[in-house]
Write a structure and sequence with these properties.
single chain
Length: about 110
């Protein structure tokens, strides 16, 4: 991952740099980093904002950003004490609360 991630950050050190780049360049640099839809959503977001908002409701409006991603950005970028429910957390919650077929609403509760 490091051999792909750090060159990507070097090429696009800011949202502005990412947003100003042609999508094809972004996708080329994204090779090896996973789902290309993520790169497309990052690029689209970078064309809309110069800085990521710190407000969760504002983050959720950005392309490809759901509740979990918005909470993760708020936690890691802005040190907000909000929960993050990714796959491992979901498994733990299901075991703790003996949930067999939980909905996202139940897990967030």
């Amino acid at each position: 991952m490091e051999r792909y991630y750090f060159p990507f950050l070097k090429k696009f050190p800011t949202l502005k740099a990412l947003g100003d780049a042609p999508l094809d360049d972004v996708l080329k640099m994204w090779e090896g980093l996973g789902y290309y839809n993520r790169a497309k959503n990052l690029h689209k977001t970078a064309t809309l904002v110069d800085t990521l908002p710190s407000d969760i409701d504002a983050l959720i409006t950005l392309p490809g950003t759901g509740k979990n991603t918005a909470h993760a950005v708020a936690t890691f970028a802005y040190k907000k004490p909000v929960p993050i429910i990714e796959a491992n957390v979901k498994r733990i919650l299901c075991r703790l609360h003996k949930l067999k077929t939980p909905t996202d609403k139940a897990l967030w509760k």
